Amino acid sequence: MRIKHVVRSLYPVVALAVAVGCSTPDESRSTRDWAADYCPQPSGEDQTVAIDWVPFVVVDGVTYSTDYSPGSVLSEEQVGDVVASVRCRIKDIVFDPEFVPREGDAAYLPIGTEVHAVAGSSVTTRVAALEDGTWRVYEADRGAAEVGG
User: Fold this and answer.
1) Contact 57, 115 (CB under 8 A)
2) Domains of the chain: which residue ranges?
3) Among 72, 101, 67, 73, which residue's Cα sits nearest to residue 87?
4) Which is the most buried residue in 16, 33, 103, 130, by most CB within 10 A?
5) For residue 72, which of 113, 132, 147 has the smallest C-alpha distance?
6) pLDDT for 82-137, tens place per residue?
């Protein structure tokens, strides 16, 4: 009886050892695994809160946002070099209205989406991202700076 109990209690340890031994190295970890390390964990505490996120991305501490108007669409010729990539898509995991987006966070862009400079514009004012086959411009949020004078 005691041996059966010991063997049964070892099942989770053996399963974990097999899973770890068969996992891929860090360099080839899937995007989902990497995001699990970086993205906030869904709280699940109060999912009655609904947040209607503005489409945004945070690059170098600046929050950029867009709308889906025709004026936010860019041609491929207007897109410059890669300046960042999305590290966490928060729309489905953050239910805290006090959450402050961090470097690499985006509301709707998938993890790994490359963020580009916009030709003829400073990266401090505009960036671009390919979203559902459309290049879209994201404008820097200057509201806080304007309010502060």
Assistant:
1) yes
2) 26-148
3) 101
4) 130
5) 132
6) 999 999 999 988 888 888 999 999 999 999 999 999 999 999 999 999 999 999 99
Count of C-beta atoms within a 10 Å radius of residue 86: 24
In contact, 78 and 119? CB cutoff 8 Å: yes
The 3-state DSSP composition of the chain as helix, strand, coil percent (nearest 5) reads 30, 25, 45
Pairing of strands 134-140, 62-65: antiparallel
71 near 124, Cβ under 8 Å? Answer: no
Residue 62 has pLDDT above 90, yes or no: yes
Burial class (CB in 10 A: 0-12, 13-18, 19+), 29: middle
Place of tokens 């190295």: 25
Q: How far is CA 89 from the centre of its chain?
A: 3
Q: What's the token pair of residue 33?
A: 């695994």
- Look at the block and give the residue holding tokens 């690499």: 104
CA–CA separation, 84 and 39 (whole Å): 16
The third-level CATH classification (topology) of the domain covering 26-148 is 2.170.150
Q: Is 137 helix (H, G, I), strand (E, B) or coil?
A: strand
Sole residue written with tokens 């239910």: 95
Nearest C-alpha neighbor of 36 from the set 92, 88, 105: 88
